[in-house]
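_Backbone structure tokens_
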Amino acid sequence: QVQLEESGGGLVPAGGSLRLSCAASGSTFSTYAMTWFRQAPGKEREFVATIIESDGSAYYADSMKGRFTISRDVAKNTVYLQMNSLKPEDTAVYFCNVDYGTQGMYWGRGTQVTVSS
């Protein structure tokens, strides 16, 4: 059974940094992409960043460009999200998503990030 475990969330002041991790386990499928989404209270879940497994290409939502960096450790089946210059509007639950192509897509339970003003 595929499991995704996020970690690294917490409470930080505005301007601070956090590094989120998401470790995938239990899968024998080939990974197409690993992606971070977030959902703020009262808002829809939104795309944050994604990284393509085959070549490491990374793509970001416009509001995260220059502040967030997604990376992965293929050997550990882990994706990271380095978040710098955090703003109160970055407060949200951050979810990890793994796309196994035709084998399906899986979600983690999320990790809370709170940025105080």
User: Anything to note?
Assistant: The chain has a mean pLDDT of 95. The chain is about 0% helix and 55% strand. Residues 40 and 92 are 4 Å apart (CA to CA). The two ends are 40 Å apart (CA to CA).
